[in-house]
Every structure is written in C-alpha cells, then in structure tokens.
Amino acid sequence: MRVMAQMAMVMNLDKCIGCHTCSVTCKQAWTNRTGVEYVWFNNVETRPGQGYPRRYEDQERWRGGWELNKKGRLALKAGGRFKKLITIFANPVLPSLDDYYEPWTYDYETLTNAPLQDHTPVARPKSLISGKDMKISWSANWDDDLGGSAEHGEKDVLLNEVSEKIKLEFEQTFMFYLPRICEHCLNPSCAASCPSGAIYKREEDGIVLVDQDRCRGWRMCVTGCPYKKVYFNHRTGKAEKCTFCFPRIEVGLPTVCSETCVGRLRYIGLVLYDADKVLEAASTPDDTGLYEAQRQVFLDPNDPEVVAAAERADIPRDWIEAAQRSPIHALINTYKVALPLHPEYRTMPMVWYIPPLSPVVDAVRDTGQDAEDHRNLFAAVDALRIPVDYLAQLFTAGDPAPVDAVLRRLAAMRAYMRDINLGREPDASIPEAVGMGEEQMYDMYRLLALAKYDERYVIPTAHAEQAHQLEELATECSLDYEGGPGMGGSGPFGEASGGAAPIAVENYLALRDRQLSDTPATPADKGTRVNLLNWDGKGSPPGLFPPGDGDRPGSPDSGGEVEPKP
Amino acid sequence: MTASAQYLPLAVESGTGGILLWVALPYVSLAVFVLGHMWRYRYDKFGWTTRSSQLYERRLLRIGSPLFHFGILFVLLGHIGGLLIPASWTDAVGISEHTYHVLAVVVGTIAGVCTVGGLAILIYRRRTVGPVFSATTRNDKAMYLSLAVTIGLGLAATVAANIVGGGYNYRETISPWFRSVFYLRPDADLMTGIPVLFQLHAVSALLLFAAWPFTRLVHMLTAPLGYLTRPYIVYRSRDTQLGSRAPHRGWERIR
User: Any transmembrane segments, and where (chain B) (predicted)?
Assistant: First the structure.
C-alpha cells in the first residue's frame, strides 16, 4: 500500500443554476491575458448540449484518454510514445480554433471617436486572432440553456448513444448544467502524452500542473486530455490548464470557482488513495466496472492501518485529520452519491458529481402528483429512463444502476426530510429503502443542504504560512510602520521600488478569517488588513477608503486620492 | 547574416580573409552557439518553445511541417555522414567512392526536395494566412530568411556540382576542414579552392548557427527523445520555495 493524498472536488448538480459566475471569476483570475482568450479553465455546459470545445466527448474523433489495447493493457488512445514522436511535427488530431471559437473584442473606440452623424455609431466585433471585423457565430456557451438546440441538439455526443425514441422526447424532459474544471486525474493522460515531461502530478496533493519552463509546445497534451481541459496559449506557445488554484489551496483557501459559487454546490477535500492500485483499476476490462474500481482505490482514512501507512508515507498529521473530515470522502464513499465524469476515459478523474434529481422531481410535479413523496419519486426514477440513461452515459459509462441508486438516495432524503421539516414523525422506512440509517441520512442532508464554508471546504494548508512568517520576520521592511511607505506597497524610491511583494499569504488568511467569521465586518480578534482585491463588500474596513471629512466617512466628495502618501 | 556575399573575394585566396572565414568564423560561431544556448536556457526557459501556429491553421501545416522536418532530419543525417565520417572509414567497410556518391546524391536529392518543398509551403502559409503572419516576429522573418538562404545555397551547390560540373568530391576538402575545426588544428587552405557555392553555403550555415540560440530554432535542442524512456506519469514534489522570492539564508524550509 502506497498512500497518497489527492485534493478533489465534488459538485452537486442539483444546485447549479448555470450563472457562470465560476467561469467568469476563474477567467478573471487566470486567463484574462492575450493568447488565452478562448481558454476557460472552468466552463459551464448545458446538458444536453455539445460542450466546450464542441463535441469534445467524441473520442473516436479526438482520441483522448486511455483505452485497453488488444493485450488488455492500458494504452494512450491517440497512440504510444513512438507514434507521438513520429507525428510531432503536426499533431493529427489537435482541435482547431473553430472547434473552440474565434475570440473577439469590440471596437469600442468608434463609440467615442465617431464624428457627428445621423446614425448611432456601433462597436463592431473584431477578431482577436486576425484583428479584422468578424461575424460572431459561436462561443464557449453558445448553446446555453438549450439555445439553438433545434439546430444543434442532435450534435450532443451522448444523445447518439441514447436510443432514437429518447431523442425526440428529450428536450421536453430535462436540462441541467455541468460545470467542468480539470479533473486532476489519478492517471492523467495529458501528462502521459507530454513528450517533454512538463506536465506533472504533485506528490503532496495530486494537483496536475504544467511546468511553463519545461513545456515546449508540442501540443500532445491537448489531444491526450479527453476532457479537453488542457489549452494551448497561442501567444506564448505553451500549454496551460486549470491549476486547482494551488496558491490558494496551499494556504487553505478553496479555489476561486468554489469561493465564488453562488449555489454553494462545490465541495473540496482530501482523498487518500493507494497509488499502487491505480494502474490496475484503470485497466478494469469492463467500462462499466470503472466507477466501482476507482472507488476501491480510495482508502478509508479512519482505518488505523491506513493512518499508519499514511504516516509512513510522510503525510502530515493534520492532512490525515483533514482526510477524515473530508466531505469528498463522505460523498463518494460513505453516502455514495457522487459519481465520476466519464470514467470510461480511464484517467481516474478526481472531480466528481452528484447527479441532478431535479429533472425527476420536475417531471413528477408536472403530472400533478406529490413530488416530495418517496414512493412517487422512486417510481419516477424507475420510469423516467431518459434522464437516467443520459446521466449514465455521463457518469457511469452507460450503466444505469449506480445512477439509479444515487437518485433514489437523494429522493429518499427529500421525502424523509420533508416529514421532519413539517414536524411529522420521521419515517425510518424511507432511509431503510435505500440502505441507509436515519442518522446517516440526516448527516447527508446536513452536508448537502446546510454545510457551511468550513465544512464544504476542508483544506489542510501546505504549512506555507509558517515558513512565510519566518521569511517575513527576517525580511521585515523598516518602513512598514502604519502609514509608512512600506504599507502602501511603495518602497523608498517610489511606486514598485524595493522589489516584488511576497505572495500574499497574509491577505489570504485575512480573507479566510472573514469568510469564517459570523460578524459582517472587521471582527476584533481577526486580521483586518483589507484592500480592494480581497474586500468582499462587507462593511467598510479601516484603511480601505480614504478618510472622509469627519461626519461623513467615505462620502463621495472626500477626494479622489487613492495613492498612499509617501 | 545575408551579407555573406561581400566576403566572397576574400574567400578565394588563402590569407587573412581565408583565416577569418575558415578559422575565426567557425570558432566564433561555435562559441556563440554553445554559450548562447546556455544563456538562453538559463534566462529564457519560458521562451524556449516551438511557438506552434497549428491552432491558427491546420491544413497547410499538416503537409508542410512534416515534409520540411523529416527532410531536414535526413539532410542532417547526410551532413553527419558526409562531414564527420572520413572517406577512409567508408572505404574500410567496403563502400566504394562511386556507391557513396550515388547514395548521397539520390538520398540527398530526395531529402533536399522534401526540405525545400516543405519550407516553401511553410513560408507561403506564414505569409498568406493572416493570423499566422500577424504572429510572426521580426526575429522569425530574419530566421526564415537565413534558413532559406542556407538551404537554398546548399541545394544549389549540390545541383550545380552534380548536374553542371559532373560531381564534386567534398570529402577531400570540406569534410577534412570541418573535422580539423574540432581537432583544434583548423586548416583554412582546404577551403580556399572549393566552388563558390559551397563556400557560400558554409559561411551562411556558420552565420545561421551563430544566430541559432536567439531564434525559435532552439526547439531542436530539446527534441523530446527522453519521452521514449521516461515513465508515463511524472510526479514532482511541490517547489521547496514558497512565496515569490527565495528564502533568506538560514530561513530555508526544513522538510
């Protein structure tokens, strides 16, 4: 047994309202640069739909992920080492920009520069690739909310797997959103495809990263990733991918997409797994066996043997404790409500999903029946093959049984909790029907419905903060007194002098304190240094706004001065 | 780089010009090549890439790029065979001068045509495909020019020697000179009497090598041959250094 820790995520799809806040904040944090205009480390897809890039799930075309070769051994679907080197001069299956979309901006200057004329000037769309006028015809979420599905609907790869009859009823039946980030797989095919060895998996937390100094732009990772979550920066000529916001994770903060998620549907935590069993699990002969095989790779962090092995593997004590409290472990292995996305790609993905029950509930409600009654819901899960089959294509390589079981468990929770909320006697037979105890069902409800920030995100720090404090002690600037030049980020020789500011662990910790505190602003016992970047809109912390004229602090006419005084 | 023509009169006679061209220039070029790469690797790892434009245009690249690259690899092999391996060695294994010559001309012509054809497609693509052209820097243009000139001169020299002149045995002049540079006993006299096109080709190649570390051609030196032997999944420990600057002495992390 070789214990390794993996930072993982679970998303509860029932709660996703498709607002794209995660995508936008991720973009602002990571990919608002030239060369990555078309890159969405996080995107939200409407299902059924084509996804981004278009039809990325069609692995017969894109050749992503792993497959079993004739000998039953795991091999890269796009070809092994030798084939990769032979085709290195022109990757035969690289998606072109058309498969993503041509990024554009608008010619806003015309709006202010245009001479006086009869017609209102317009800002024309300009391609960010060629710089010329362009007609916008596609984007990252063009088919959002089933938009244009009459035209594009049948291009959904998974729909082709589901039978003809279902296709026609589909649109009326259900729709849900699927937020996607990099899966930070246990068996990453992007890393295996990289000729330079620039993509690596971090030993400590399993985050898969691209070493920008070692990437040579051979583009094989883009093909290798079946989720198409490695992107090519066309300005720098390097591959870029979701980083799981590792600078935040290292100090115990959730990723930007999770932090800003309006529906609070994301959970982050550790999973302990046995690295020796990964290859065997990924080589499971039957596609439909992969979900169960991957679950078997995960270790029970409460098992004393596992704890001992983890300690031998130099996993810090607080990491093991975090793994024991991990919401991910609970959702995947204790309650068994989370499922992996496309396990048939055999990469052992580590961003899992709780499939949406809402389509089933909606369908029952539309019939006029009681949509909270577990008997109705159970019957509907069985009868409504359409959502179940589609979800099975997404999460279990087509096997409806696990999806069925999850939906029944969610339905049972719904019905059981209604009785409690209405003050009726709880019905123990409901959890029993899905193989759960009453207490366990309530705990699951707590985790899915009530869990607060520190329960949804159980992230042990990388012990970076300590090292950093040591560093700061040694390097403290003598001008860093209150109101001194050091406080405003300016050195003795003006703005930006005195070297770069160190990574802002202090800011991160302050933000974390504020998220975990119950008072809306400036808790007395917590760090309160705030700037515009980490201000969350709660109150007006001291130092953030320039001092007003006494009676009206922060009033608009208190002067536009924002520069720190030297 | 393209000013090689002005050296021509000096090249014909052995003397100061000959020494400069066939003794000084090779060493300068070699030194810049080696030290330049070391400097680039230390200070510009982020810029060390193929700068692929496949995302912009696929159709022409699919033909042109493999054609050029495989062509130039065979040309490279040919140069190694012709310049590094002495005629006495090939004689020793029983390859006659005639066999060698026929082999070199046939394989060389095929590889040369592939290279030039691929390069033509790539240059055409670079000029005519809008996004590719707008991603082309001045550095790229200079590189393309010197590369094209070098390849063109090389092909011209071979064609001229074999079709017009009935063959030229460079293994008696250019090859010994090339090796003599590495023996540290450079013999400029060997190069003075050879056909002008070969001289021009050699000079342009030396200039290209000197420019090499400062262009996108650096990607050749990191051809990913290690991929054949390394394990598929690379595991790496988190950087020992946390934060944006190195810890000060005495404050390093204890693992």
Answer: 19-39, 60-80, 100-124, 144-170, 190-212
Could you report the per-residue pLDDT of A393-433, keeping only the tens digit for each?
999 999 999 999 999 999 999 999 999 999 999 999 999 99
Whether A202 and chain B come into contact, CB under 8 Å, resolves to yes
> Would residue A397 count as lying in a domain?
no
Count the domains in chain A.
2
Domain ranges of chain B: 3-225
Residue A517 lies in a domain: yes
Q: Which domain holds residue A468?
A: 464-496
Residues of A in contact with B230 (CB under 8 A): 197
| In contact, A348 and A294? CB cutoff 8 Å | yes
Chain B touched by A200 (CB under 8 Å): yes
Identify whether residues A510 and A492 lie together within a single domain: no
Partner-chain residue, chosen from B134, B232, B253, that has the shortest CB–CB distance to A130: B134
User: Considering the entire predicted model, what is its pTM?
Assistant: 0.85
Q: Which ipTM did the prediction report?
A: 0.86
B37 is in an annotated binding site: no
Return d(Cα A194, Cα A222) in angstroms, integer. Answer: 9
E-assigned strand segments in A474-542: 490-491, 494-495
Residue A479 within any structural domain of the chain = yes
**Each residue's pLDDT tens digit, B211-228:** 999 999 999 999 999 999
CATH topology for the B3-225 domain: Fumarate Reductase Cytochrome B subunit (1.20.950)
Helices (H), A42-199: 59-62, 81-86, 109-113, 149-152, 157-161, 164-173, 189-193
A128 touches chain B (CB under 8 A): no
Question: Which residue on chain A is closest to B48 by alpha carbon?
Answer: A216
A471/B251 Cβ within 8 A: yes
